[in-house]
Fold this protein.
Amino acid sequence: MKYTKGTIGRVFLVKFDDDDILIDNLSGLTKQEQIKAATVIFIGALKQGDLVTGPKKPVIPPEPNKVVFKDGWEVMGIGTIFTNSKGPQIHIHASIGKKNKVLTGCLRGKSKVFLVIEAVILELKGIKASKDIDPKTGLNLLRII
């Protein structure tokens, strides 16, 4: 285990609107506000998107089990934001539900907002961490500096 400590900096309340691409808009805000490290918590609904619901088998490197969803799902999630030389690295895990079906996993790609998503972003100050591609797993993993 490795850790670093810091404090909470700025706090952002964000409303994502219908048809916004969640991760793209979050990335844009991160760049605009020059956020280097943060956590994000959100609730709302997604019209469509991609979710990785774990690996197909528990081997390294893992092969992702990708699920495409559409037709509007309730969502709640939490994620981290770390900015490196390539820009914001956003990692979101979410649970989505529709009728009696629930999926949980890593939100990816062009997941599109349905009606609204309300989010709170807590900027982390003094944190010595980044995200970079790990050569062993091929994944964009947290690195405590």
